[in-house]
Amino acid sequence: MGNKLSGKDLIKLGFPQNNTINIALGQISRYRKGDKKDHILLEAKDVLLSPDKYLGHGTWGKVAEGLIKPVEVRKQELLNHRVPFQIYGENEIDEVAKRQLYDALKLPVAIQGALMPDAHSGYGLPIGGVLATNNAVIPYGVGVDIGCRMSLSVFDLPASHVKGREFQLRNILKDNTAFGLNESQTNRSDHAILDHAAFQDIPLLKSLKDKAYKQLGSSGTGNHFVEFGVVELFEDYPGWKLGKGRYFAVLSHSGSRGLGANIAKHYSQLATKQCPLPKQVQHLAWLDMDTHDGQEYWLAMNLAGEYAKACHDDIHRRLAKALGARVRLNIENHHNFAWKELLNGQEVIVHRKGATPASEGTLGIIPGSMTTPGFIVVGKGKEDSINSASHGAGRLMSRGACKEKISKSQMEKVIAEAGIELIGGAVDEAPMAYKDIHTVMKLQEELVDVLGTFTPKIVRMAK
């Protein structure tokens, strides 16, 4: 008998001759490569005798599930009707994005959908798409950059802090932020998130922990940014330590980096295998929340969201220290995430792919482009929008179109005219690539109230 474990070894132990053997071999080859065969067989025997004991276990949970109640893989058909939906700012949204929403509304697990006024086509759900489902989570309904988020910190400094300090502030931004795959913070921080039990309990996450440590406090490429600017608060909002007025602030936009991307890739592949759908909607494959993989994705997704928050907190802490200032107010929110929420009295899973939570009383920040203001908002809790609002201005031009139609000098001219200083950035993030934020905000007046604005002054993005 060779040292490589085979299906025959498991049959000898008494494993049923069905898909459980394939699951077991897959889990062992993925997560227990270096372990001795005898040791694995001892564990496998225990799983066979007491599968209940192993439910939820990182390596053996899926095998235990196969022994107790195997996941049923059957071809899913689309409904011949769409579930209820609402589109905000229909005339501002491209036809492909609408079609992507219409497809999602025919999923047998769909309950209700919505499209925000910043929407444009994406992969899986459109960007700006919101979908409520029944006990199912769609990895591509959440997206690749899990828990991508906005974070705004307002300092105990006046708005005039920018004037005459541009050179110093530019250096503070350069020295305390890191972008893209090749940059990381030189003096790395430890953070409680790295001690999260999921990094121990879920083998996939265990393998990603080093990457998460290296990338902590860094930002992604594309439309991710850290920018200094001026906040204007329009009113004395209850619970805020700052009254009406103008203040110096920092706004950041980034997500869960390599950690989230790897989680998305792994579980979307599992969903595709477990949930065969017609070809045009295969990327909307879901995981049943009652399965091992559904529960594991939910844990991993939530960890990625907490990790994204930890990255922003680390960036804002570094900047506050370099400025020698205190943060008096922080407003933050996720997009690219799924939440368990009540909708019309029923518990649903709400996917917001590039959409801001806007239930009644929920604070958020909706950025414009780098030459236009962002808006501090409070949700009105509109059920037709599934308690959501836009996550920004939304793209008018694809990245490819920007590279064809916009020159670097055109972009620089527009930015200079707006009095903005840009560090890094590429033409696919040119201000003209985006819809008009004022139009977008007008189209969602019934979804959010505006409490203030953030106007960028010095913007840092990936090179």
Secondary structure topology:
Layout: H1 7-13, H2 19-31, H3 37-49, H4 61-68, E1 85-87, H5 95-104, E2 110-120, E3 127-133, E4 136-137, H6 139-142, E5 149-158, H7 166-176, H8 198-201, H9 203-215, E6 225-233, E7 245-254, H10 257-274, E8 287-288, H11 292-323, E9 327-334, E10 337-343, E11 346-353, E12 355-357, E13 363-366, E14 374-379, E15 388-390, H12 399-405, H13 408-417, E16 421-423, H14 437-442, E17 448-461
Parallel strand pairs: 1-2, 16-17
Antiparallel strand pairs: 2-3, 3-11, 4-8, 5-7, 5-9, 6-7, 6-17, 10-11, 12-15, 13-14, 14-17
Helix pairs in contact: 2-4, 7-11, 9-10, 10-11
Describe the fold and architecture.
This protein is α+β, with helices and mostly antiparallel strands. Helix content is 34%, strand content 24%. Strands 5, 6, 7, 9, 13, 14, 16 and 17 form an eight-stranded mixed sheet that branches. A five-stranded mixed sheet has the order 1-2-3-11-10. A two-stranded antiparallel sheet has the order 4-8. α7 runs antiparallel to α11 (292-323) and α9 (203-215) runs antiparallel to α10 (257-274). It is globular. 48% of the residues are buried.
